[in-house]
Write a structure and sequence with these properties.
By secondary structure, the chain is mainly alpha-helical. 91% of the residues lie in helices and 0% in strands. α1 packs antiparallel against α2. The chain is elongated, with a radius of gyration of 17 Å. The two termini are 13 Å apart.
Amino acid sequence: EKLATLGAISGGIAHEVKNPMAIIRGLSDITLKQIGNQDKIEDSKENLRQIVGAVDRVISIVKTLSRFSRITGEDS
C-alpha cells in the first residue's frame, strides 16, 4: 500500500518539477540570446524574474518533499 502511494506521489512530483525546469531552460536560452541586443534588456529582466519564480517553486516543492519524507519515515 505504501509503495502504491509512493508511486502515485512520484508521478506528481516528476510533473511538478519538470514544468518549472522547462521554464528555466527556455527562458534562460531566450535571455542569453537577448543579452547581446541592448534593445531587449527589459525583456531579459522580465525573463530573469520568471526564472527566479520558477526556481523558487522548485525549492518549495523540494522542501515539501523533504518534510513529507521525514514525517513518513517516523511512522515506519
